[in-house]
Amino acid sequence: MARRGTSPDGSKVESRKTQRFPVTVPIEASWRGSDGMAVKEQAIAKQVNANGGLLEMARYPEVGSRITLTNFLSAETAEARVLATPYSREGVSHGIIVELIVPGESFWGVNLQVKKTGVEMQKLEKSLRSEGIDLRLLNEFRDAVDYVRTAAVIVQQLRERQMHGRDDDDVASVLIAERIRRTTNLCLEVITDLDAGKVSNDTKGVDELYLSLEKTCDRLRQLLKSRKPDRYLTTRT
Predict the structure, then answer these.
(1) If you count Cβ atoms within 10 Å of the first and of the last residue's Cβ in the chain, which end, N or C, has fewer?
(2) Which residues contact 142 (CB under 8 A, 6 or more apart)?
(3) CB burial of residue 49 (10 Å; 0-12, 13-18, 19+)
(4) What is the pTM (predicted TM-score) of this model?
């Protein structure tokens, strides 16, 4: 196996070609030990890209070993080669560095895609800000990006809990709360547009919005009137 290059001061030269992204993906690693016996160990992928990444785990295969990785969330498998362990490279602790035999981002799942998209969105946001885009549009863009990140994390947590047979009510409630927060903000934005005269009878979707808000208000009124009966009396005739 080729060794990593060194700089004049003896430190290791970073040869990574593409950026790694922080993720949290449960992995099972399996390999043959020096005695020929099969070994399985649970790991967590922490920093990855299409070529491989860092896996945190308690027991390590030897450098150069070929191992099989299984993504617990998708059940997808991939073959990888161990490039470094805590015993072989300075700066590697509590885990191993692996290289996928067949490079690809799909093995790491949606977690990696969301992280990459988040980085690209941040670059786009900086570009939009430098071009003097309206602050309301920029805030809406930022909120949408944050929601994508939050939803992706929650969906992954739901998947993990379902796989392990654990209750997922608290995770689902976080998603619902986030949905309500976004709806509230969107309603405030629509009110601002109405007050500014930017919404007319010809604006597409106005009728549908009114009907959906009416139904939502009816249901919320029923939910909330038990808290303050006098406040949430129906006033519409």
Answers:
(1) C
(2) 125
(3) buried
(4) 0.55
